[in-house]
Write a structure and sequence with these properties.
By secondary structure, chain A is an all-alpha fold. Chain A is 79% helix and 0% strand. Chain A has one domain. Classes of the chains: A mainly alpha (424), B mainly alpha (175). At the A-B interface, helix 1, helix 2, helix 3, helix 4 and helix 12 of A face helix 1, helix 2 and helix 3 of B.
């Protein structure tokens, strides 16, 4: 009965296309009433408590800040800024996408938002400069995933809540792996551009770069405020997210005058909409998490896996394969909330640092965001670029490979994640 | 009826926008106050948590109204039109059962809460009421949608697939 309620029923309902929130709620409620005989009013307490969490307040704020920046066209200025700096390299336009996604990711924390923000403005430019449509679309769809790893990352905030780890440590741990993935992808696209004979070199000029810096400097102030504020000990991540909203609104409304108050109001309502989509699953997952804890389910896999006496390397390899498969099927929010409480005791028992594992888990699930056939970014890119899905699949596969190489390095070189945590 | 629904949804959107903007204002005031005046608002953290709860569950009504709950629709999106309609109906019924359950138990639970929050002294039954209220609204939205789905299923004819019917089928666009 327990196996059916916790595993078979949710998988079946997910395949039938039921909302993730409803699937988790159905499974948890059945377990609560029929298996555990708990009072039904526990649902209210858990739904309320699952969301009433100070760390989670950062989620709507970062979504709001990213949405203001997109609507206020600050992302375009960031792209121009990066382009003016590295556009003189052959393949520099492609590398600009990766660079801009990294900077934008340091603001919005949302992978699909980054694809929509960067893709809309850069895709036509890539085509004009000779990039084949599948390469251009594949590059943009996969670059968006960097936003999920570079802090502030919504995925890392959710992992911190689900696994009860420090958001600050997780953010710090995400910096070097995120930059490493960016570097690897930029290198790949530069070599690909050369292999395809694309000549997108732009003439570098001091005047042009100065102008781009001047135009984009306010936008660049955003990651400085967020990351400098958090790591300088001035703000908590939640406060930094709130200050980021004020800053983005000030720059868009007053400095650039690229947004009206009416638009700000609309963006605010849209941000709450996106927040509700994500955090409703958090609320349901909190009941689910309580049920599986009462049922003793996290302990079972720990005992089972401990019996095999796996080395950390073999365990990480197995978990990577499992998480890559999960990431291809399930969105990162649901996967993190359901799996982090189960996997954390397993990795701790094997001697793996839970902060390092948080980064590994996020990288896995972010790869899933653009892995065919089901990655969410593929469908966002399909909506933005109006391309047949098979063209997108063809363009994305090399980037999946590059990211898997990065994942192997991130997984088996814990210092890449943990070096800065010890330092800052 | 449609006008009233649109007005209610618009009001709810406005309320959600107000909640997030007010929350940003509160957290900024608190941070600035701490550094500039060495004084922070003691109830800020508590109220921000409550505001988040209200945002999520009030927002859930909007998400349900637009039928954009996150779901794994990828196995079903290539299915024939009538299969998608049936599965859509199934999802709506499942959500309706869950929403009515949450609403019912929520009203039961808040009737027993008769104390106030520690810092802001807000009545906790009022703060908690957003959950049963939101799910009551969700139940109504789903009941209306389920009734509206019937004609689509009843009038379906073999060969009448995809294009025209798909365009009107906004409900299947959820991710």
């Amino acid at each position: 009965m327990t196996l059916f309620t916790i595993l078979v029923l949710p998988v079946l309902l997910l395949i039938l296309g039921a909302p993730v929130f409803a699937v988790i709620m159905a499974s948890a409620t059945i377990a609560m009433i029929f298996t555990l005989d708990l009072p039904i009013t526990l649902t209210q307490t858990e739904l309320f408590g699952g969301v009433n969490n100070y760390s989670l307040i950062a989620v709507p704020f970062f979504i709001f800040a990213g949405a203001i920046m997109t609507a206020g066209r600050m992302s375009e200025r960031l792209v121009n800024l990066v382009l003016s700096m590295i556009g003189w390299i052959r393949g520099g336009l492609g590398a600009t996408i990766v660079g801009a996604a990294t900077v934008f990711g340091a603001i919005s924390g949302s992978s699909p938002a980054t694809v929509a923000a960067i893709g809309g403005s850069m895709y036509p430019s890539l085509l004009r400069n000779g990039y084949p449509d599948h390469v251009a679309a594949g590059l943009i769809a996969s670059s968006g995933a960097i936003a999920g790893i570079i802090p502030p990352s919504i995925a890392l905030i959710l992992y911190s809540v689900a696994a009860e780890e420090s958001v600050r440590d997780l953010f710090i741990a995400g910096i070097l792996p995120g930059m490493f993935i960016s570097l690897l992808m930029a290198t790949y696209i530069v070599f690909t551009a050369r292999r395809l004979g694309i000549n997108d070199k732009r003439k570098w000029s001091l005047a042009g770069t100065s102008k781009s810096i001047q135009q984009g400097s306010w936008a660049l102030g955003m990651p400085l405020i967020i990351l400098g504020g958090i790591y300088g000990g001035i703000f908590s991540p939640t406060e930094a997210a709130g200050i980021a909203c004020i800053y983005a609104a000030f720059v868009s409304l007053v400095v650039y005058r690229s947004m009206s108050l009416r638009e700000l109001w609309k963006v605010a309502a849209d941000s709450v909409f996106l927040t509700a989509q994500v955090l409703l699953i958090v609320a349901a997952a909190s009941i689910f998490s309580r049920m599986i804890t009462i049922l003793g389910i996290p302990q079972d896999p720990v005992l089972w896996i401990s019996g095999y006496d796996l080395s950390p390397i073999v365990l990480l390899l197995a978990l990577n394969l499992f998480l890559l498969a999960v990431g291809c099927l399930l969105d990162p929010v649901s996967a993190i909330l359901v799996l982090a409480p189960i996997l954390k005791p397993i990795v701790i028992a094997a001697g793996i640092d839970p902060v390092h594992f948080g980064v590994v888990m996020t990288v896995n699930l972010m790869i899933g965001m653009f892995t065919p056939p089901f990655g969410l970014n593929i469908f966002v890119a399909q909506g933005v670029f109006r391309l047949p899905i098979r063209v997108l699949y063809r363009g994305i596969m090399p980037f999946v490979f590059v990211n898997v190489v990065a994942l192997i390095v991130v997984s088996f070189w814990p210092a890449l994640s943990l070096f800065l945590v010890g330092l800052l | 009826m449609r006008r009233i629904t649109e007005m209610l949804i618009l009001t709810l959107r406005g309320f959600c926008a107000f909640l997030i903007i007010a929350s940003v204002g509160l957290i900024a005031t608190n941070s600035i106050g701490r550094y500039a005046f060495h004084n922070s608002i003691v109830w800020a953290e508590e109220v921000l948590g409550f505001a988040l709860v209200w945002m999520v569950f009030a927002g859930a009504v909007l998400v349900t109204e637009r039928n954009e709950h996150l779901s794994m629709s990828l196995f079903t999106e290539n299915a024939p039109y009538w299969v998608r309609q049936l599965l859509g109906m199934f999802s709506d019924i499942l959500l309706l059962v869950i929403a009515s359950f949450i609403s019912y138990q929520g009203f039961e639970a808040i009737s027993d809460i008769n104390y106030v929050s520690q810092a802001a002294r807000l009545p906790l039954n009022f703060v908690n009421a957003v959950i049963p209220l939101a799910f009551a609204a969700i139940t109504v939205i789903l009941a209306i949608r389920i009734v509206a789905r019937f004609p689509n299923l009843m009038t379906y004819k073999r060969g009448q697939d995809l294009d025209a019917s798909e365009q009107s089928d906004v409900s299947e666009s959820s991710k």
